[in-house]
Design a protein that fits this description.
mainly alpha, 2 domains
């Protein structure tokens, strides 16, 4: 499950996305590069804002089972879905269906892995899927022409450095860094300082913010900081 979930890791997909944008611009597909860049930025901003909103107002959304929407699911849906859209035009209906089916299956597997690893709940994965689907829709709208991406020998040679970058990030970076603790800390402070979601207890927000340094220290193998009164 860890290998599957790493396919949706920000440390893997962000460099891969930047590489895809550079590759598309390099082969003269600047409109596609701009469309994917816009979809990627939208996905990242939407996921970040959703995480901040749900984390700051977590106590109000307990019935929904959502505290932090799955960024893995959102970004993987955007990356693999848009890549399938780039490859599909010009092929038969059967091949297009196979491409879309493989992309959808991979994204669903990543979502399932997040639940299996207890990193997210099923509703959090659904919210991530919604963000990713919206990003794919934006990509389709912004594409002026749906020209097929021909994988000729020359194109494959040009693509190989970016494929190597993807593999290197997957092997070396995946699972070693997460933005979640930082996002949770910022959300807790925003909820407390701006008095957001008044039904939530401000004290619990501050408690979450105080607990985060211990989580970071534990990941680093450092001694934990004792809480007040402990």
């Amino acid at each position: 499950m860890h290998l599957v979930t790493n396919l949706g890791d920000l440390a893997v997909l962000l460099p891969a996305s930047l590489g895809l944008i550079a590759f598309l611009a390099w082969i003269g597909r600047r409109e596609d590069a701009a469309a994917y860049a816009a979809a990627m930025v939208f996905c990242l901003l939407a996921a970040l804002l959703a995480k901040l909103a749900f984390a700051a107002c977590g106590a109000r959304h307990d019935l929904l089972g959502v505290e932090s929407p799955s960024g893995h699911t959102a970004f993987s849906a955007t990356f693999y879905g848009c890549f399938a859209l780039l490859l599909a035009p010009g092929h038969t209906f059967g091949r297009r269906s196979a491409l879309y089916g493989c992309a959808a299956a991979l994204v669903l597997l990543i979502g399932v892995s997040r639940v299996a690893l207890e990193a997210h709940t099923a509703p959090e994965v659904v919210v991530g899927l919604a963000i990713g689907a919206t990003s794919i829709g934006l990509f389709r709208v912004l594409r002026v022409r749906s020209e097929p991406l021909r994988l000729s020998a020359q194109t494959i040679v040009r693509l190989s450095p970016f494929a190597a970058l993807y593999a290197a990030c997957l092997l070396l970076l995946a699972g070693h860094w997460s933005a979640e603790p930082v996002i949770d800390a910022v959300a807790a402070e925003l909820g407390a300082d701006l008095r957001l979601c008044r039904s939530a207890q401000v004290g619990s927000l501050h408690g979450t913010a105080r607990a985060l340094p211990n989580a970071l220290r534990q990941r680093r193998g450092e001694p934990l900081i004792a809480r007040d009164g402990a």
